[in-house]
Amino acid sequence: MGRWCGVRRRTGAGGARPPASGRPAGAGAVRPRATAAVRLAAVTVLLATTASLPGGTALAALAAGAAGAAGGAGGAGGAEGYAFADGAARVEGASDTAGAALLQPGATYRSSLARNDTLYYRLELDADSDTYVSVTAVPGSEGEVTAVDGVRVAVRDADGASCSLGSATFGAAHSPRPVTAWGMREIEPGASRCQDAGTYYVAVERVRPEDSPPDDWDLELTTATEPRPRRAGPTEPPGTWDSASPEPLAGQPERRAGGSGFARATAVGQGVWQSDIRPGQTLYYKVPVDWGRQVYASAELGGSDDASGYTTGALRLGLHNPVRGEVDDAAKGYTGRPAAVGLAALPPVAYPNRYASSRQVGALRFAGDYYLVVHLAAQVADDFGDGPFGLTLRVRLRGTAEAGPGYTGEPRPKGVFELSAADRAAAPENGATRDGDAAMRAVAVGGIGTGSLLLAGLAVWTVTARRRAA
Known about the structure:
Layout: H1 27-49, H2 56-71, E1 89-90, E2 101-102, E3 108-113, E4 118-125, E5 130-138, E6 150-157, E7 162-169, E8 179-185, E9 198-206, E10 217-226, E11 254-255, E12 266-267, E13 271-277, E14 282-289, E15 294-301, E16 311-320, E17 326-334, E18 339-342, H3 359-363, E19 368-376, H4 380-384, E20 389-398, H5 421-426, H6 435-469
Helix pairs in contact: 1-2, 1-6, 2-6
């Protein structure tokens, strides 16, 4: 019951980057830049700290937006620009199950994968919860990759029986980029395999090691658990839904730089969002999607002054669910003229979707933050230069929010399958409220406690900035 991905690579640099502009470096120029950096760092830390308080999700979105504005659209180009989760524990994969390190539910880890390795990690599971493991493989930006290479993830019980097998490949563009595969152990009615409590193993390997680059790939591994619902519901997926692709959302775009990894994804709601993207770069956005709602997105790449040449699968748009499992993806070639790519019309998020035979429908099994991942193939630079290129992301949410299944316990990580009041404000059913309004509502929801913390933090910011200026 796997669900997986696809898209191409760059062999040479084409076109020169435009020279950076700005004032000459000197004594008079250094101090303002340093002060601005201190202010940005103080605000970012402050807003990130308040993310655990009421209304914290929208505040965290402000922090992410501030960081994006400082670092540009998603950091450095190429797969090397991927931003791993802060505080992720380093874990070494074992060459066999006997030495496999334990992955704790709800945690995030870093590891690495050599070309010919099969690495093992261990899970200790109960007999009540569904468990999900995602593995993001990050190759170097210069290695030669093939369309069918990528990463494979298997979950097996202590006897070696397969619970799930999934893979993610680079696809037709041959462009090195972070690829994410997921595996799972599900508690299913009538199933006889992988249903008991006990030890399970996660096996990670490259899909085509014989054709893979020789360098090690960095890995980011996440685990999540989903308790049983409080009451039994249907065990058949919904039969029909509005499968017509909606008209792309119109309106004046708002500037919103994409993040450089799942952990740094920029929060957006329904709207039109604009950024820049360079060849080889991957940008991450997250959209809160409630039970009963449909998400649709499209990405548009601006034209080039040099409209000659062609890059296969140049612009890729993918959608991932709250445990980073891929739902859908689409890619479009580029000729230097404006190009657009859109996701398929998908059903509303619903718990019974997990019983569907379609991988896209099955991945829409819980509410939470869904991730839009945009990649521009490195080979675009060969014919059209290093950019940056204008990127427009259009996000539409349809349907009416519904009550979820109600879980018997607490998912790990906490809150991964639910939306806060601030999340819902960022994605209203009429699409009228913008993210900025939602963030301000979140500040109000936070109340006096959050306001006091903001004032204290701003005081520290001011004092620090004055000391730097002195």
